[in-house]
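Quick one: co-fold with nicotinamide-adenine-dinucleotide.
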Amino acid sequence: MNKINIGIVGLGRMGQTHARNIVVNIPEANLYAACSVAEIEFEYAKREFGVKELYQNFEEMIENPNIDAVIIASPSGFHTEQIRLAMEKGLHVFSEKPIGLDIEDIKETIKIIDSHPNQIFQLGFMRRYDESYQYAKKLVDEGILGELTLIRCYGIDPSTELESFVKFATSSNSGGLFSDMSVHDIDLVRWFSGQEIKRVWALGKNAAYPELDELGELETGAAMMQLKDETMAILVAGRNAVHGYHVETELIGTKGMLRIAQQPEKNLVTIFNEQGIVRPTTQNFPERFREAFIREMKEFVSCIIDGRQPNVTANDGLQSTKVALACQKSIKTKQLIDVE
Ligand SMILES: NC(=O)c1ccc[n+]([C@@H]2O[C@H](COP(=O)([O-])OP(=O)(O)OC[C@H]3O[C@@H](n4cnc5c(N)ncnc54)[C@H](O)[C@@H]3O)[C@@H](O)[C@H]2O)c1
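Sure, here it is.
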């Protein structure tokens, strides 16, 4: 069978991870083309991955008849339009989260996705492909925790990434802390509980980086949520974890509790020195979710080969963005918000 020719749009922090995974880990696929608005990234794509077909315009890239599928890793505000264009060109689509930033626009996009049922669509909720999260999900589904009562999630970027985040948020619309960061946790809450979220109350504070005020961005935010069956969720999102990349999830049920990555350790090394007992921390998302990013891309390519749709759907993107936007609205209005 011929390799699946992939065109990637966006060669920034996320795009580079996907590009490398295709080249190094997915023998059934070929990184055939890349699209970016930054010249320097073309040099990188040629040098690192040997990509020959380089474009500054997405619509031009998808005109290339040799492309079978696209990976969308452009800034979040471009996702819906690029998904629609690629779907209408007959291509399979993997899109980074969030699926979009506006509910009506996402709904229109889902109509187009649904009208092409033979093309694969997958959304980048890679945590669902992480081994620990999959193991925990299996235990929860088997009933080890009894009935869930509360889910607590931390998703905090390292402060070392703040400069690059400010650049990202200055040049494009991140969608805000909840759409950008918490969508992963919102998706986990929905995935673990099998429930939709019906009500949210969110708060935020800029303390270490007041310059984020100017960008309309938050450094730390928290949201309390109620699910349809009255299960509760507490989400903390932030951009200022001084020790590294902190993603942690806790599930509490009637028969017990379960934690995933309670301490976000880099590996099994423990250092004993003048600071005491030191466990190095995972430093960024490509490091913490390295295997999950590979596994989600393998799933995308397998789905194309097998002609089946992946478990992470466009509707998961719609529902998570709905909740994230309700959190943004709650911050703005200081009110408890019912999710539509
Ligand atoms: N799954 C995850 O954990 C995760 C982590 C980080 C980022 N993301 C998502 O990935 C996307 C990209 O984020 P990033 O951090 O890599 O951003 P980035 O700023 O590092 O990179 C953006 C890339 O898009 C390109 N680009 C910008 N405008 C474009 C346009 N009009 N046409 C074509 N290319 C264009 C830029 O040249 C750059 O290559 C965002 O939607 C973000 O939410 C997901």
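If it helps, The chain has a mean pLDDT of 96.
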